[in-house]
Description:
A 7-stranded parallel β-sheet has the order 7-11-6-1-4-5-12, sandwiched between helices. Strands 14-13-15-16-17 form a 5-stranded parallel β-sheet.
Amino acid sequence: MANVLVFSETNKGNVKPVTLEILGKLAGQNAEVAVVGDLGDDQVKVLAEYGASKVHKLKGDNLDKYSPEGYSNALHDFISKGSYDYVLAGATALGKDMLPRLATKFEAGLASDCTNFIFDGDQFNGTRPLFAGKCLAKVNLQGPKPHFVTVRPNALGMPETKTAGAGEASDATVTAGEIRATIKEIIASASEQVDLTEANIIVSGGRAMKNSDNFSILRDFAEVIGATVGASRAAVDSGYAAPDMQVGQTGKTVSPSLYIACGISGAIQHLAGMRTSKVIVAINTDPDAPIFTKADYGIVGDLFKIVPIMKEEFKKVLDQ
Ligand SMILES: Cc1cc2nc3c(=O)[nH]c(=O)nc-3n(C[C@H](O)[C@H](O)[C@H](O)COP(=O)(O)OP(=O)(O)OC[C@H]3O[C@@H](n4cnc5c(N)ncnc54)[C@H](O)[C@@H]3O)c2cc1C
């Protein structure tokens, strides 16, 4: 059995869903969770339900806002006092920033952006996409412990069965040390949507949207089905969609349960960002569009006619 620490980010006081995905997959291992700052009893309970044996709330100066140096120093301080074999975190913007720093501090290995893993005894065996998702690499980690792993949000999915842990919560004082680069301000996106990298359903629009106003068709549909709206680079470069909506090689990598591509041709650079989606639906007027070779369901037709019909049909079903 491996001793595993899962670093959990919080959003408005709630642990991020990727933490629960990871915990679900760690059934059979000793899984503890670390958060920076406070965490409500309700969230500690959730972590326990998903298998956390302990929940450590890391507290100290200079930790009120995320800073790469402060958080990695604080985690380094905490982890050094324990005996963890592995430290796992979501491959979120923060996880991708912090875990390599931590791995470097421990001179340890890092398996980044894993889309799956299993433990064989206490040995981690992970899978991670390479070359923009064209192949899957099997990874395990050797050398000094702890080993570090980031896991792509939505890739594992929530566990079907849960194995509860004790969820023993405690405070731990940590030192963030000297912080040379501080974040002065974080400007939240105007959108209330779930971030693309964490969205369970995504509706994306491509160049075929023709202008930014037409994206309201996708936003209306997304509201009905609880989706987040994404875009291709062509749509972003044309000024139809904001840069933070871009999915693909130079945009965000997403792994939702359902990805609906509207008027997107399916260029390799777009597929690189969404090919691990569980179910892909494509709507395109061109029956030979490459996206159809990757889609589970394809609709050949005009998105401006099909999306409103889908919205109404989903509304009927979901309102029942
Ligand atoms: C280094 C590099 C990095 C890149 N990174 C990215 C990236 O991160 N993300 C990304 O998306 N792209 C990226 N690209 C660009 C990529 O190569 C494509 O140019 C881009 O994905 C095309 O976007 P699109 O599918 O919206 O547009 P198009 O390829 O022009 O496709 C539009 C599609 O809409 C269909 N269509 C037209 N009208 C309708 C209608 N009314 N209803 C339904 N369908 C319709 C057409 O048949 C067509 O298939 C990158 C390129 C390079 C070189």
